[in-house]
Every structure is written in structure tokens, then in C-alpha cells.
TrEMBL record:
Mur ligase C-terminal domain mapped to chain residues: 308-421
Residues that hold ATP according to the record: 109-115
Stated name of the protein: UDP-N-acetylmuramoylalanine--D-glutamate ligase
Catalytic activity, EC: 6.3.2.9
Compartment list: Cytoplasm
Superkingdom: Bacteria
Segments forming domain Mur ligase central: 107-286
Function noted in UniProt: Cell wall formation. Catalyzes the addition of glutamate to the nucleotide precursor UDP-N-acetylmuramoyl-L-alanine (UMA).
Family of this protein: Belongs to the MurCDEF family.
Length: 444
């Protein structure tokens, strides 16, 4: 019996272990950290062998196949040893896709991928299609393949997951945008990160589709130099497209595979230009899988949005509190600063991923009246904005940050948590950070 070793006992790892066992592998799960109770209980239930707090190298190097959790960098010595020994090291999406014939819609990009994934799934369900949503969001894709029988999967896919693919091929790929992110994992070379994102299309054929932002100069120039096999379906806010989606004054127009669709931007439940783009991408995918036009229009109006992404929490003394904890990079924060039309008290900071804050400067000068730093090391933020903003306060807990914001904000302001950084210095993850913000606001 072939041995499948799963490195990492989180959502994707445990899902892979369940599917691996089901399809006939001997499975061993190994996590250098602690495996959470909810996951170890599942492994016990399925009688899958596991260890935590260590990696037993002799056993791991004996593997026939290794699934590596996306959080483990490729340059970890154990992973390098596996590769040198000729053991294939793949990601969950690569493994799970071998065991399903479902139609795959894969969505990647630096920003907007969660919203686009949730909206695409919402449109497919609205069209009464039997569709699951997985990947970087919600439940494990491998676990779904093991336990459900969906006709379609809408997958949110990170660059780390794409780094571990060999044959993975979505029928419809969506690339929302590419801006510098996670450069610490790509030797601080932007071109390595771009190449990683484009792996989503590397196995696509002429019968497949790549939906992409034609306004994104990085995507356009890469496609000029590195043509793909799939049919290109661009969307744009700036220029009319022959095929794809474009904005005509206040109307979104679409034309794809002899289907046309028009809808007013007034019906969109989500605010902001970036959400017009997310809507275009999701609607194009829905048209390609034959969801009816009227259904798409109705579903667009009923979509609720994503938690921790420009989520309005409360209004206190005429001050709006907005949770944008999901903004873990500069570009996501740019959308937030750009989208809110009030004077801002901005809570920012965390683990810097090689950020360049200069693109935020015009918006900060125009809108931000005070900055509250929330991180263990705020030196880069102080360097970037210290001379521009009169009031800058350093804090080391969410409760403290929110109290300071409450003191310095005035009627008509907005207090915005949009960190532009990862959360791991003070929080478990961006959800934990956002939830702490919401409860601190509610306790004011």
C-alpha cells in the first residue's frame, strides 16, 4: 500500500488525509506544531496515524507522495530533502482534483479572490447548480471530494497552493489582479510571485477559459510575453471589449460564447469600483456554466459580502467603525482608503510582508487624520507616514487601539481597521483580529 504523508494537520491536511485513506493510501499526518483538538479528534475517528510537535524524518522520507500544507515554505530543509529524494510534494488542490470529475472554477489574485469566489458560488447556487465552495475558504476541498458529490467546485486558490500543482487544471480560471504580496516567500522577486499566480492557467487547453482583469498592466504584459492555451475572457472598467465584460457609463455589458448580459451598477449590493470588477468576473463564470441572465441579476442583488472585508460594525456618536481585517496587503488597504468617503482614523500594522507604503501616500494625505499602529514593530509605518500625519499612536492590543480611536475620533469620522499586514504577531489570523476589533467596538 502506497504511503501518503500529510505535512500539516489543519483544514487542508486533515481533509487530504480523509480522502487519501478513502482512495486506498496508507496515511500518516505530521505537524511540527500542535494539532488543534477538533482536527486530532477527526484523525482519531478515522483511525489515521498522526503526530504533532515533531516530524519523524525516517518515516516521512519513506513516503510515496507528500501533501504539504500551503503554510509550509518550499525552502524548509525537510521539504528540500523530500524533493532531492525524488518524492513528489504536492498541494491539496492537486491531490483532490485527481479524484473528481466535477467542473472546476479556480479563482486566484492578490485581492478580491474571496469576494469573487463567494459571489461565483452564490450565482451557481442561485442557478440551482450542485456546487461546492472550497480551497482557501471554508471547508477542505479534499474532504468535500471524499464526502460529497458536487457537479461544480468553486475554488479560492492562493499562490502557495498553485506552487504545489502538477496537472491541476480548472475549466474556468479567474485572475482578479496581481499586486506585490507574500514577497517574503518569493525571494522578494515580484516576477516569481507573478509566475506563481499564472500557474492557474499552465495546464489549460483551448477548450478552457481564463477570465482576467484587462486593466491590470502586470497581467496584460505577462500574457503578451507568455501566451496561454485557454480562451481569454477579459473584463475592464476602462475599455470596451469584443469578448468579456466592460463598463458603459453605469451599465455592465457582457458578451461571452454568444451570450450577452446587461445590468446597471445600481443593483450591486457591494460598493466600490473593485466590486464592479469582482461582479464582472463572477458573472462571466456563471454565464459560461449556463446560469440564466435573470438569475444572475437577482443573485447579484441578494449577495451579502464577505466578513472582515469593509464590514460595517457600528455607529457610535456619529462615528462609523469599519472592520477590514482581511486587508493583509497594501493594495487591499488602498481599496479601503479609497472607498470610504469620510475623514479617517486608521488602525494599521502587523507582520510586514515586504510592503511598500508609498502608493497609499496620496490617500493618506487626503483622508487620514490619525494613525494608530497595532503591531510589535511599527518602525516602517513611522518612517513612511511620520512626517505626513500629525497624530500617530503606538498600541499593542486591539482593545487599546479601539479605545484610542474612540478618544480621538470626532462626529462624521470613520474608524477603519485595515492593517495592510499579516496578523500573526498579535493574533491567530485575520479573522481573530477582526473579531477582536468587533468585540472591542461593542464594548465601548
Amino acid at each position: 500500500m502506497a504511503l501518503l504523508v500529510v505535512l500539516g494537520g489543519g483544514e487542508s491536511g486533515v481533509g487530504t488525509a480523509i480522502l487519501g485513506q478513502k482512495v486506498g493510501f496508507e496515511v500518516f499526518v505530521s505537524d511540527k506544531g500542535e494539532i488543534k483538538d477538533k482536527y486530532s479528534k477527526v484523525l482519531e475517528h478515522f483511525e489515521i496515524e498522526w503526530e504533532s510537535g515533531q516530524h519523524t524524518e525516517t518515516k516521512i522520507l519513506n513516503a510515496d507522495l507528500v501533501m504539504k500544507s500551503p503554510g509550509i515554505p518550499d525552502k524548509v530543509p525537510l521539504v528540500q530533502k523530500l524533493v532531492e529524494n525524488g518524492v513528489p510534494v504536492i498541494s491539496e488542490i492537486e491531490f483532490a482534483s485527481k479524484y473528481t470529475d466535477a467542473n472546476l472554477i479556480g479563482i486566484t489574485g492578490s485581492n478580491g479572490k474571496t469576494t469573487t469566489t463567494m459571489l461565483t458560488h452564490h450565482l451557481l447556487l442561485g442557478g440551482a447548480l450542485n456546487a461546492g465552495m472550497a480551497g482557501n475558504i471554508g471547508d477542505s476541498y479534499a474532504k468535500m471530494v471524499a464526502e460529497q458529490n458536487y457537479d461544480h467546485y468553486v475554488l479560492e486558490i492562493s499562490s502557495f497552493q498553485l506552487d504545489g500543482i502538477v496537472d491541476f487544471k480548472p475549466h474556468i480560471a479567474i485572475l482578479t489582479n496581481i499586486t506585490p504580496d507574500h514577497l517574503d516567500r518569493y525571494e522578494y522577486k515580484f516576477e516569481n510571485y507573478i509566475a506563481s499566480k499564472f500557474r492557474i492557467a499552465m495546464n489549460q487547453e483551448a477548450s478552457d477559459y481564463l477570465i482576467y482583469d484587462a486593466d491590470d498592466p502586470i497581467i496584460s504584459s505577462w500574457l503578451n510575453k507568455n501566451p496561454v492555451q485557454s480562451k481569454l475572457i477579459p473584463f475592464s472598467l476602462k475599455e470596451k471589449q469584443q469578448i468579456g465584460a466592460w463598463l458603459d457609463n453605469n451599465t455592465i455589458r457582457m458578451n461571452v460564447e454568444h451570450k450577452t448580459l446587461e445590468m446597471s451598477t445600481d443593483i450591486l449590493a457591494l460598493e466600490g469600483q473593485h466590486n464592479v470588477k469582482n461582479t464582472m468576473a463572477a458573472s462571466l463564470a456563471a454565464l459560461l456554466v449556463n446560469v440564466r441572465k435573470e438569475t444572475i441579476r437577482q443573485s447579484i442583488q441578494s449577495f451579502q459580502g464577505v466578513p472582515h472585508r469593509l464590514e460595517k460594525v457600528l455607529k457610535i456618536n456619529h462615528v462609523e467603525y469599519v472592520n477590514d481585517s482581511k486587508a493583509t496587503n497594501v493594495n487591499a488597504t488602498y481599496y479601503a482608503l479609497d472607498g470610504i468617503k469620510k475623514p479617517l482614523v486608521w488602525i494599521v500594522g502587523g507582520v510586514d510582508k515586504g510592503n511598500d507604503y508609498s502608493e497609499l501616500m496620496p490617500l493618506v494625505r487626503e483622508k487620514v487624520k490619525a494613525i494608530i499602529c497595532l503591531g510589535m514593530d511599527n518602525s516602517k509605518l513611522k518612517e513612511a507616514f511620520g512626517n505626513v500625519i500629525d497624530l500617530m499612536v503606538e498600541t499593542y492590543s486591539m482593545e487599546e487601539a479601539v479605545k484610542v480611536a474612540y478618544k480621538i475620533s470626532e462626529r462624521g469620522d470613520a474608524v477603519l481597521l485595515s492593517p495592510a499586514c499579516a496578523s500573526f504577531d498579535l493574533f491567530e489570523n485575520y479573522e481573530d483580529r477582526g473579531n477582536q476589533f468587533k468585540s472591542a467596538v461593542k464594548n465601548l
